[in-house]
Specification:
With about 80 residues, the chain is of the alpha+beta class. It has helices at about 55-60, 65-70; strands at about 15-20, 25-30, 35-40, 45-50. The protein contains two helices and four strands. The strands form two sheets. It has a two-stranded antiparallel sheet with strand order 1-2.
Length: about 80
């Protein structure tokens, strides 16, 4: 599994590291991913997902079922 949020699809961003002399080298800005156990009320069980911190904050507002439906994810596979 790659470094990608399972609900939002966020992944690494290509960027430049700029030195004091303004020499630019390529670098990756990775997403802040966390393993999170989330209670899925419809399935009546815990689901373990790899989520970005932005997705964890959004889960506090939306339910997991609504968020997964918008992302097009089947929670029975997790």
């Amino acid at each position: 599994m790659g470094r990608k949020c399972q609900l939002t699809g966020k992944k690494a961003n290509n960027a430049f590291a700029v030195s004091h002399s303004h020499r630019r080298t390529k670098k990756l800005q990775h997403v802040n991913l966390q393993w999170k156990r989330v209670w899925w009320a419809e399935g009546n069980r815990w689901v373990r997902l790899r989520l970005s911190t932005q997705a964890i904050k959004t889960l506090e507002q939306k339910s997991l079922a609504v968020f997964a439906r918008e992302a097009g994810i089947d929670l029975n596979k997790f």
